[in-house]
Amino acid sequence: MGGAVEISEPLMSESEKHINGEDEVVPEWKDQITFRGLAVSALLGTLFCVITHKLNLTVGIIPSLNVAAGLLGFFFVKSWTGVLSKLGFSVKPFTRQENTVIQTCVVACYGLAFSGGFGSYLLAMDERTYNLIGPEYPGNRAEDVINPGLWWMIGFLFIVSFLGLFSLVPLRKVMVLDYKLTYPSGTATAMLINSFHTTSGAELAGKQVKCLGKYLSLSLVWSCFKWFFSGIGDSCGFDNFPTFGLMLFKNTFYFDFSPTYVGCGLICPHIVNCSVLLGAIISWGFLWPFISKHAGDWYPANLESNDFKGLYGYKVFIAVSLILGDGLYNLIKIIAITVKEMANSSSKHKLPVMLEIPGSEDSKLLLEQKKRDEVFLRDRIPSWFAATGYVGLAAISTATMPMIFPPLKWYLVLCSYIIAPALAFCNSYGTGLTDWSLASTYGKIGLFMFASIVGTNGGVIAGLAACGVMMSIVSTAADLMQDFKTGYLTLSSAKSMFVSQLIGTAMGCILAPLTFWLYWTAFDIGAPDGPYKAPYAVIFREMAILGVEGFSELPKHCLALSCGFFVAALLINLLRDVTPKKVSSFIPVPMAMAVPFYIGAYFAIDMFVGTVILFIWETVNRKDSEDYAGAVASGLICGDGIWTIPSAVLSIFRINPPMCMYFGPAASS
């Protein structure tokens, strides 16, 4: 849920000057992909997979890490070339095309840690999630359990992850050149990469890297320090520090000193952070205490804290209804915008391109655009190759998917591959206009559809697996178009973009399951009271059961409350769209409000601290905050992410922290 990164004007004009240089030699597509680039991509891909899993398994909010990927890619290759040239080796110059290839490769790799479903649909199939919902819960059958396994997960990713890349390749000219879609994150990344490769930009990039390194070190040292006090169990250490007193601590309102969430707060837009906090106040401040007072009337009083017949049921279903309401609204809105834009562009394209006589500035821009178009169209990826690739992969997948997930019959897999390209197009177009990828919404549509088609006998597994197929195709197709836009603006070959996306996806198919396995073996994943709650695993399994069973077993008034929040999500989104910009920028985002309903308020406090720091920084020195906020945030997130690797290794070897720092009420004398 990362917002597009804003980049200051001077930076853009500097990079524009650089692009105007007709003398710049654009390397051949094969020369843009280098061994050092792939080595750096694998290293960063591993780090970002670790970070994505951590966020996925704790809170489920993942900010955009594209800027960090661009910055760190630039830093590592520059260091590499610097060291080798000092040792007297002749070194190939580091071009912005190579930088773009690294960026593409890293994003493709860590994208699979999200769309691979390690915190959502794959984990929803496991035994722990089945037990959490309860064996006696209608529709929750013991037969619908498939526990994570390293080999089948790697196989599954290889089967489904490449199809999205082939589905839209023939449309790249239409999306980037004809419709001129903006792809805000892709454009911002391109501007950033272009700026690195100018004199003043390289200087700023050097400072940004230093800044990132400083905060990465601080975050790493702090996370290590925190570990010593975290003891055994889940109630020790800084992660359970009752900042606002024990009463509020009981309702999850406390600051847990997490660099990751403070970093997320610095990257995510202010409105997202404020929405998360508002969601936490509504749910943990008012709604849950109110429902708890009716224990014994609305639901049995003596239930476990994670029993679906009690308060836990309200938490999950109200969060689900907000997420679905928001997703449905945005889906309808983006399809409507897409249809309208296409109608407009078909009439627009009949107009002559140039009506006014160009001045020197206009002709410069035209020359620059001509060069970009020429480079973009030079290395064509034949349509027959894309079509053959898609059909061939779909055939392999149709044959092998039922072996991994028996309830998902071959004809259902085939149907999903026939529908998928249309959904992938909608999502890529929507992402190009709004920067909002709705991959998980399309996944949920597949989930409900296939769960209800298959019915009680295996519908849960079939729905979750179909969700995986949809999510992978739709997500990778949008990422590829975003990368084509970045490549177009950095004069990178479309062929090198496609090949680096293929290589990055192949890396992700291996690295994402391996890094997940580190968490799976080291930590108690899915424990409702532990740090790795994996919130979306329960939510996705419940959705699959809903698709099969309907609303039969909800606690009293739960359906009414859920419907109320579903309608509220639709209305809030409508308000955001119909009110003027200066009003709508203060209206909350329902999708962001939904997350703390289920998880708790602590990470909302952390993210809000991040947003307050950024707000003060913007007020004091806007230029400085625009240049360095992304680097500070990336440093905080990466440092904390790096620490999870040694802490996981310590946990695997059963080495526990030496101290437990614990807070309780003072004993009354």
UniProtKB/TrEMBL annotation:
Domain of life assignment: Eukaryota
Transmembrane regions: 37-55, 61-80, 101-124, 150-171, 271-291, 311-332, 381-404, 410-429, 460-481, 502-520, 554-575, 595-617, 629-653
UniProt xrefs under Pfam families: OPT (PF03169)
Membrane topology of the entry: Multi-pass membrane protein
Location relative to the cell: Membrane
A GO CC annotation given for this chain: vacuolar membrane
Keywords for the protein's UniProt record, in alphabetical order: Membrane, Transmembrane, Transmembrane helix, Transport
Keyword Transmembrane helix (UniProt): yes
GO molecular function (one): oligopeptide transmembrane transporter activity
InterPro entries reported in the protein's UniProt record: OPT (IPR004813), YSL-like (IPR045035)
Keyword Transmembrane helix: yes
NCBIfam families xref list: OPT_sfam
PANTHER family in alphabetical order: OLIGOPEPTIDE TRANSPORTER YGL114W-RELATED
Family: Belongs to the YSL (TC 2.A.67.2) family.
Protein name: Metal-nicotianamine transporter YSL6
